[in-house]
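#struct-pred

JT: dropping the chains for the assembly here, can someone run the whole complex?
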Amino acid sequence: MLESLRRIVQEVNNAPDLEQALTIIVRRVKQAVNADVCSVYLNDFENRRHVLHATEGLRQDAVGRVRLELGRGLIGLVSERAEPINLDNAATHPRYECIIDTGEERYHGFLGAPIIQNRKVLGVLVLRQRRRRHFAEDEVTFVMTLASQLAGAITYARTSGELARLQHDGIPQRFLPGLAASPGIGIGVAVVVYPAADLDAVPDRRSDEAEAETADFRRAVQKVASDLDRFAARTQAHLSAEDMALFDAWRLMLESDTLIDGTLTRIRAGNWAPGALRDTIAEHARVFDNMDDAYLRERASDVRDLGRCILMHLQNQTAAPIQYPPQTILVGEEISAMQIADVPREKLMGMVSTTGSGSSHVGILARGMGVPAAMGVSDLPVGRVEGREMVVDGYRGRVYVSPGPAVRSEYQRLAADDEALSAELQALRHLPAETTDGYLIPLYLNTGLVSETRPLGIEESAGVGLYRTELPFIVRDSFPGEGAQMANYRRVLELFAPRPVTIRTLDIGGDKPLPYFPMHEANPFLGWRGIRITLDHPEIFLTQVRAILRAAIGLDNLQLLLPMVSTVTEVDDAMQLIRRAHDELLEEGYQVRMPPVGVMIEVPAAVYQAEALARRVDFLSVGTNDLTQYLLAVDRNNPHVAKLYNEYHPAVLRALLQILTGARLHGKEVSVCGEMAGDPLATFLLLGMGVHSLSMGAGSLLRVKKVIRSISKARAREVLKVALQCEEPSAVRRLLLDALETVGLGALVRPGR
Ligand code: PEP
Ligand code: MG
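RK: done, full complex below.
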């Protein structure tokens, strides 16, 4: 049964449209479980009925004609309960209704399985048997598995209008849901891109000509390096320095020992270059695949991408140039940076991918280039949308395929609004983040996530509020030394001087393991992470602190930040090590200064000890990303519980208040550097609470500044007061949306003015 399941799933996935997918399902399922009838009813919500859409065993002329009122009969019951119903004699069930026109009165055995997508029942898959028959458990699970396979195809058919055509009546246009990866509205024509060369299809082949294979491989790597340079040059005008650094990161990966030496070793062992490359890429990508951190996991696709590019040159292929329409929506399962860079910027209106999320490279690049993007649009059948008109709503992560005139004109209006808003925001670049009643709240940047070589330099920020230092440790094959680290930190400190730069000490471990530092933990988020690792390995901590202190010599704009603190002892121990590094450097003749040191509050234990922590350090910085995950017991990277992850949760708000109270007792400042700081809705709450500064990604800065400059601190306090009476995150969100709409700024978080 498992084998037929696999085969049917494959056939369904390859079906060109819903009609054929349904035909395949009913035919194959009937066969596989030896039933007399297999049918699919789909729910037509607009007309409140179940419609027979496919059958094998009943009269074909019943298809499309048999329509049951929604909720009636056994079909209605399966739909209502959203679970399978298995009866050996359907007619004796109180909800049984005989469906005329199908000849089904002859049947006894009944199995109905709901077809569900996102908690919504879209239809019912039904099996009937002439004799009495109670279907076996494995048959029930088999049917349920196939029903779930149909859900995606049905959703797509609803949105594309195919279902409406099948049902012979007009269904309003629906969207395909995905993740909002880059705000904005894009309207254009879909251009579908595929990976150029298939690494997995490369066979092993023995070669005795290691030298020739080596030369081919090196030549291919060289060609990819020059492709990267060419793309970087072409994209330069449209990206910030930080986003351009992606290209440096790829160069680093391309030229890394892991990739080069790994492949050469395999060539020397007797494999030909493509086979050696395939294994090296697979091994390297696996390291990233196994990381829990969503951002780092995305690096696996970069590694595969690079592998494919090298393979393409090894196979002497050159991709035929694509003719991009003037308004291109780039679509793919995965989209690579090079595929993006291939589209002239003025033609690129939007991007859509079926995989990935906002933290993937496409998301980062899209935001950097200001191109609307939706990612993780898993129901989009990539193979069937080439050349079709598409609308991308990057605010809500929605995609419309072949939109009707009403949808199109509505989105054309929204796109025009959006352009006007961007222009308006640009005017704020050099204005202070000051409330209407004269309260200043400095806005800092979060940086370091992308590359250590060329950190961003955005003039309008007050400095860097969070410089994440993990990346240089991850992209290398071993710990970077003091000198290499110092050069990185110096660059960012110099770029922002005299404005402060807050450098966070290493936050690896658990969810962000290093390839060269083995860690195997059952519960990585509750494990060896951040300061816990660096205190256990003072040599790593001391090297980093020395590099950071040396980097700041003569600039004096450095602040240090300690991640994942859960006890005061950790702070005491870390302070001791920082002082030691400082004293040693002085002894060595370096003119270092002791910088202000802060603690990240991102673990519930630290919230309750905010006062004791504030007594020990110079400032507190709240990491709302981790704090929310730990307070709510919701993995921040797990899509299954994404709905529960909410920074407006009353528990998060109360935690923030408690942190501020603790800090206030010692006159210490509190900053927020988690994603909440960049959310224009949350600005009301954080301002109202009296948070001293906010630190966020470059893309959020002007939006948050706009809110701050449009409201008074007194108003923020009023909103906060009401928010604190709410018992549910959704009520807080509604309140904040309302407050934002009242000052005419709803367009900052949704399309339209
Ligand atoms: C946080 O947890 O909110 C934070 C800023 O740190 P990171 O996202 O790097 O864990
Ligand atoms: Mg954190």
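JT: nice. The pocket of magnesium ion (ligand 2) is lined by residues 602, 623, 625-626 (CB under 6 Å). The mean pLDDT is 86.
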